[in-house]
Every structure is written in structure tokens, then in C-alpha cells.
Design goal:
Function: Catalyzes a trans-dehydration via an enolate intermediate.
Organism: Candidatus Borkfalkia faecipullorum
Keywords: Amino-acid biosynthesis, Aromatic amino acid biosynthesis, Lyase
Active site: 22 (proton acceptor), 97 (proton donor)
Number of strands: 5
Strand order of the largest sheet: 2-1-3-4-5
Radius of gyration: 14 Å
Enzyme class: lyase
Strand content: 15-25%
Helix content: 25-40%
Bound molecules: 1,3,4-trihydroxy-5-OXO-cyclohexanecarboxylic acid
Order of helices and strands: EHHEHEHEEH
Shape: globular
Number of helices: 5
Largest sheet: 5 strands, parallel
């Protein structure tokens, strides 16, 4: 099982931005934990982050992974392009958010990608990623 851990806009700022919401660990540190978590379960993983919507679409289209763990960041709430990219491939996608978006501003309550994702994990900080990985291994 090979998984693509895909992060969208502003996730490169994790650890620096809004630490009360997203924690103090950097994305590299979180990715290292995900890598070890996967390794311990016999899964392979690769990582990609971009602030560019089209690059996220291309990553979804071109991956040879068996599944995608996707935190699209704010793209989640308005990117029909990413939604369509997910719908255009057979690779299952699990949507992830570190924060509980439903307990935050109204504009975060709606995801335009949820409908085309296998499921959503949200509100567990960096553990949201690990739970999403686990969902592929059940
Ligand atoms: C986020 C939630 C989004 O609303 C926000 O724009 C992000 C991060 C999360 O991980 O909680 O950038 O996806």
C-alpha cells in the first residue's frame, strides 16, 4: 500500500501560523511522524505540498499511489478544480483537517470536496493525518 500525503495552500506554514489552532510542529516534523507510522504498518508514503491549486490537481491526476490523504487547506471550501480532479481519478481520497472546521468560522463549515472523497477526518490535530492513513489499512 502506497499513500500520497498531499497538503494544499498554507500548510507549509504549519508550526508557524496560528499555533493555537494547528500546533507548533512543522509540516516536515508531522510528515516524519506519518512516515514512521506508515513504515510500522508496512505502508509506503510520499509527500507533496503546494500553494498552487493546479499543482494539487496535477498531483491527484498523476499519482501512482493506492490512496491519497488530502488536507487541501482553504482550497477545501471553494476549489471546484480540486473537486473535479478527485472525481476524475479512481484513486480514493480521504479528506483531512487538523482543526474542527465545524467549530470555526462559517465559511469553513462547507467543503466542496467531501462529496467526492471516501471520508473525512477532522479535529484531531496532526493525528487527523494518522487516522486517515489508518483508514486505508483497515
Ligand atoms: C485546515 C482547515 C481550513 O479551513 C484552513 O483553511 C486550513 C487548514 C485544517 O487542517 O484544519 O488551511 O484544512
Amino acid at each position: 500500500m502506497k499513500l500520497l500525503i498531499l497538503n494544499g495552500v498554507n500548510l507549509n506554514m504549519t508550526g508557524k501560523r496560528e499555533p493555537g489552532v494547528y500546533g507548533v510542529q512543522t509540516l516536515d516534523e508531522i510528515n516524519e511522524e506519518i512516515r514512521k507510522f506508515c513504515l510500522a504498518r508496512g505502508a509506503e508514503c510520499e509527500f507533496f505540498q503546494s500553494n498552487l491549486e493546479g499543482e494539487i490537481c496535477t498531483a491527484i491526476q498523476q499519482t501512482d499511489a493506492d490512496g491519497i490523504v488530502l488536507n487541501a487547506g482553504a482550497f477545501t471550501h471553494y476549489s471546484y478544480a480540486i473537486r473535479d480532479a478527485i472525481a476524475s481519478v479512481h484513486t480514493p481520497v480521504v479528506e483531512v483537517h487538523m482543526s474542527n472546521v465545524h467549530a470555526r468560522e462559517e465559511f469553513r463549515h462547507h467543503s466542496v470536496i467531501s462529496e467526492v472523497c471516501r471520508g473525512t477526518v477532522l479535529g484531531f490535530g496532526k493525528n487527523s493525518y494518522l487516522l486517515a492513513v489508518e483508514s486505508f489499512l483497515l
